[in-house]
Amino acid sequence: MAETRPLDVAPVPAEDYTEFRLVASRQFHADPIPDSPPDAVWRNALYESQRLTAAWSDGKIVATYRCWDDQLAVPGATLTADLISTVTVSPTHRRMGLLTAMIRPDLLRAKESGTAVAYLIAAAAPIYGRFGFGAAVEHARWTVDADPALFQLSDESASLTVELGDDRELRTIAPDVYDAAYRGAPGAIARDGVWWDGTLGLADLSDDRKGPRYTIVVRDETKTAVGYARYNVKESSTQRVDTSELTVHDLAATTPAAYARLWAFLASIDLTSTLTAGDRPVSEPLPWLLSDRRGARQSERADFGWIRILDVVAALEARRYATAGTVVLDVLDPSGLAGGTFALHVDASGTGRVAATDGAADLTLDMSTLGSAYLGQIALQEIANAGGIAEHTDGAIARLSALLWYPATGAVTLTWF
Ligand SMILES: CC(C)(COP(=O)(O)OP(=O)(O)OC[C@H]1O[C@@H](n2cnc3c(N)ncnc32)[C@H](O)[C@@H]1OP(=O)(O)O)[C@@H](O)C(=O)NCCC(=O)NCCS
Question: Which terms in the Gene Ontology molecular function aspect does this entry carry (predicted)?
């Protein structure tokens, strides 16, 4: 039986990185394979740049928690976020408060260091609302008929050139394209060199991120790369009729013309019948490229990124707004971390100014609800329609919903972390 005394919760020293990873792998049902030497080099470099916390019982790790700072795309800007990952508690030590003992101090630390939001991908949805997180961006799988005749390309799009390449070449091209593209996709995060090396198979890792992938790069008339895609094809046929599926693993473009050219080119590759792409935005513009919009179908829609606002003033002032207006919101945060009453005033240029106020609020909402609407991808009105937001001034929910909603202008493959 598990002990009931408080367990040691502390930062993880480098000599425990392997145990940390193996314990976390077990909770996520991954193969408990020890790191190969290249894996260890890559992972140690990653962990050394991050904050690892664990709980120990009898000298063994029984809970893990990992976080680091990264740039998060928010409406019209990027913002430093506390990214949280690898949250696990051994089955022998559940419901003893270990998650709480790891996440609460981290959220407080992040707030005190001036970080306005925390961000994570929830393995299970019921866990994080109590800590003030709200589901803020969704992802989906798209399936597209591999029929180039469906695509109606503009002259600009058709004039772009497409090059075939490989992951090694992509390493020098993709980071700049992605860096420009993700900024228009609220909920997407920046990717650093360690991420690119690991994902593109250049770190000699033994896990499944390595593997044969084909790449294409789209260039404009100045030869500047404006888009790329990584894919592979699973070959199959029925009675000699090709049923092969092309899977897009990553796709980013800096312009709508490049985006259209990428998809149209992928659809033109012979000996494939369908394209699929996971971890894509739910608002992917794909159907609007096609003469028959049913040629692109969405499935597996689910929540992806969850936001926890740690500083309402800083978070709301960091993003842009698509419309002007003023709303006073009362934000409930039982943890005492960041709640209060705030006046949000957005001017005609889309700049928001926020001030704590003693004045009467137009509406009252939970911190998790504000988090869900913060990235501008989920309408506050949609959440309000399910109840849970108290309106004190007629029309306040509709006004705040209109203020917070923001169109995504980029469509990148969302990054797991
Ligand atoms: C989810 C997990 C980390 C929770 O850890 P824990 O140490 O048991 O959590 P705590 O004891 O601190 O519980 C805090 C609160 O969350 C609740 N809670 C914890 N896990 C929950 C779950 N899966 N579903 C619903 N509520 C949960 C607890 O009941 C407790 O509520 P209370 O304060 O009202 O009593 C742990 O169950 C786990 O490792 N699960 C498998 C891996 C996983 O899902 N990780 C999440 C990755 S994003």
Answer: aminoglycoside N-acetyltransferase activity
Q: Are 25 and 39 in contact, with CB atoms under 8 Å apart?
A: no
Last residue of a domain, one of 269, 285, 303: 303
d(CA 289, CA 38): 43
Range of the domain at 163: 140-303
> Which of 98, 132, 166 corresponds to the end of one domain?
132
Per residue of the chain (417 residues), give pLDDT as tens. Answer: 444 445 789 999 999 999 999 999 998 998 777 788 988 999 999 999 999 999 999 999 999 999 999 999 999 999 999 999 999 999 999 999 999 999 999 999 999 999 999 999 999 999 999 999 999 999 999 999 999 999 999 999 999 999 999 999 999 999 999 999 999 999 999 999 999 999 998 888 887 565 678 999 999 999 999 999 999 999 888 998 888 999 999 999 999 999 999 999 999 999 999 999 999 999 999 999 999 999 999 999 999 999 999 999 999 999 999 999 999 999 999 999 999 999 999 999 999 999 999 999 999 999 999 999 999 999 999 999 999 999 999 999 999 999 999 999 998 999 999
Q: Is residue 412 part of a domain?
A: no
Ligand 1, closest atom to CA 124? 44
- Active-site residue 65, yes or no? no
DSSP output for 69-127: EEEEEETTEEEEEEEEEEEEE-GGGTTSSHHHHHHHHHHHHHHHTT--EEEEE-SSTTS
Looking up residue 272, the CATH number of its domain turns out to be 3.40.630.30
Do 222 and 297 belong to one domain? yes
Candidates 128, 151, 178, 304; catalytic one = 128
One domain, residues 154 and 48: no
Ligand 1, atom 19, residue with closest C-alpha: 127
Please identify which residue in the block is written with the tokens 């000599």: 15
User: How remote is the CA of residue 298 from the centroid of ligand 1, in Å?
Assistant: 31
